[in-house]
Amino acid sequence: MRSAKTINYLHTHMKDAILILTGGGPAPGMNTVVGTISKAFLAKGFRVIGLHGGYEGLFRPNPTIEDMTFKIADSIFNRGGSYLMMSRYKPTQEDFDKNFNLKLFQENNIKLLVTVGGDDTASTANRIAKFLVSKNYPIRNIHVPKTIDNDLPLPNNTPTFGFNSAKAEGTHVATTVYEDARTSGNWFIVSVMGRSAGHLALQVGACCHYPMIIIPEMFNKTKITVEKIINLALSSIIKRKIQGISYGGIIVSEGVFHELDSDELKATGVKFTYDDHGHPELGKISKAQLFNDIIEIKFKELGLKVKTRPVEIGYDVRCQTPIAYDLFYCSQLGCGVYDLYEKGETGCMVYVDGNGTVSPLYLKDLQDPQTGKIPPRRVDVEGDLAQTVYKHIVNFITPADYEAAKAFVPNPEDYDFKKILNW
Fold first, then answer.
1. Which of 28, 160, 217, 254 sits CB 3.0–4.6 Å from 287 for a disulfide?
2. What number is the average pLDDT over the span 390-397?
């Protein structure tokens, strides 16, 4: 005769189960998505299993898993960070051939794999689903797309979750920094996260009325060079000197530096460590410090007396408490995962439009047909949003300022904003 404990164990493990993992880097709203999914599936009688360590856990003999109870879900849904520990682990073909933990799915009766992450996480989820089918274990997979960079090309310019919370915290930091600039009569160089696109930098800078905002997309008609980045910053500094203003801030997207040639970076005189291919390792240094060091060299050449200080806005916005926008939006996404599962969907991302309508979004509809990769959604620098910022908020040299600018530099046309960018 089986004991009550054994019966309870068998009952629990015979339930249909779902497995949730989080991959990549954190974004505000991760816990809201996971907590909402857990509540939705638990209410329908499913067992919900959380996997710690991202995809790495699927290729270990003893993965760290945890049953997601209502109490856990209810305690995390409005918190920052990620209760399920994350990783950027990307499995190789050898991992699939030798290390995949098929027993985890078989012994726990897992019917659905839910992944929360960027496009790489989504692509790996599809690989896993196909692999399980090849092993005669059909499983469905649904992905929840996230990135604070806002660079996934969701329809109708829908933001990615976490972006608005990161923007709110970035604005808080940048506002405090700007107040310091005004108080002390200094300039601050503020680098904002965003490797492929300048959405976060542009909107944080606009929220705080920074006199110069430099993003990679603004170089749509000319090549990015160190000299042009410096001259854009100086355009703003000189313009304010003409206006009798001794302070300000330069917002620069980290993506600007990632698009520079290695030779350009080496020529700055800044000390770097280098990878095996001889390229400067930008990921290991502060972009704000890098730009600050470069621009200070230029100040000395021109004889300009300007004090600058570097500030980095990056990791400090990833694990903050989500604002109300993302709490609601991520709750919609979490509920949407259950709705898509109930409709039989698989191999898709969950998408919620401005009206709250949930629909599947397939990777094949976003991928470049040639490369198979999802191209980043970049700032439409010629669109109304960006043009309004550059027309009315930032400060820069124009031909009307040339005569007054000669009091500070001998060649003011070199700092003409539109000439620098060929706009």
1. 254
2. 96
**Domain check: are 129 and 198 in the same one?**
no
pTM above 0.70, yes or no: yes
Enclosing domain of residue 309: 163-319+393-421
* Interacting residues of 303 by C-beta distance below 8 A, sequence separation 6+: none
Pairing of strands 358-362, 348-352: antiparallel
Same domain, 125 and 258: no
Q: Name, in order, each residue with C-beta under 8 angstroms of 2's C-beta and a sequence gap of 6 or more.
A: 10
- To the query of whether residue 368 is one of the catalytic residues in this protein, the response is no
**For position 2, what pLDDT does the model report?**
45
Whether 283 and 332 map to the same domain: the answer is no
Contact of 150 with 197, CB cutoff 8 Å:
yes
List pLDDT tens digits, range 226-236. Answer: 899 999 999 99
